[in-house]
Specification:
By secondary structure, the protein is α+β, with helices and mostly antiparallel strands. It folds into two domains: 1-86 and 122-191, Nucleotidyltransferase, domain 5 (2-Layer Sandwich); 195-264, no CATH class. Helix content is 25%, strand content 33%. It is built from six helices and 13 strands. The strands form two sheets. Strands 1, 2, 3, 4, 5, 6, 7, 10, 11, 12 and 13 form an eleven-stranded mixed beta sheet that branches. Strand 3 (48-52) and strand 4 form a beta hairpin. It starts with a helix and ends with a strand.
Length: 264
Amino acid sequence: MLQGLSWGISQAAILSVPMVEALGIEGYLIIDDVLIPKPFASKIAFCFWDHDHSLRRHTFGQRIVFIVWSNGFLTTRLLFAFWQKGPKAPQPKRRPKRGRAAARGRKITDFSQRGKLRRATYKARRKALKRAKRRVRLSSGVHQRSKNQLARILVWKLVRRGIRAKFILFDNWYASKENLALFERLGLYWVSRTKENAKVYFQEQRLSVRSVGAQIKKANYHYYSTVGARVRSFEVELGDRLVRRTVIKDDTAPETASHQVSDN
């Protein structure tokens, strides 16, 4: 019974989206997660201690990964899944290192497209092997899945049910290479926030997003009166794909006056 509760599907909400789209209102999908506090819960399933970024402290509750459909005025929930923490693996004791640190591989000198693809394939293979080794089972008997894995499953279920949306929005937590590959394979245009220290290839150089945006003066950014901010887009290489990084400055949003957005 508890395994059945780990997935939630609102059939009425899924059926309401095509009705709204039939009226000529186009929408988009949004991926996010939320921690529902359950401070007095003792026997409720899927409760654990997790960090609440809004309260800035650890809270006992349920972490839910969800997808909603919105057009800017109307928001409808579609699918959600409970995320569960895996058992804490014992950390092996490490001996203190002595002497000079050993060099970590050869220095990268081949920045051609073939060299980048070879390095990306090698990293993906190493990452898949590590993920297969540390895959654990929960007390309920199911495999523990990360938030990104749950997000991919939810998006895939929505597409299988006939939800049609051109865009999907999410923060930088869900901007993994596996997620982007799935969204592009499903024909979705994605838009995501980007960390300033994210590394990309720009003009045959490996730079941070902040360094790419700093190469052009703010006076040369395009000013948009509708949003009251200066915007400039750059075409960069992220892994094995070509993406567009948009730097927004002098923004009136409450988070920060300058931030980066990525899209395909």
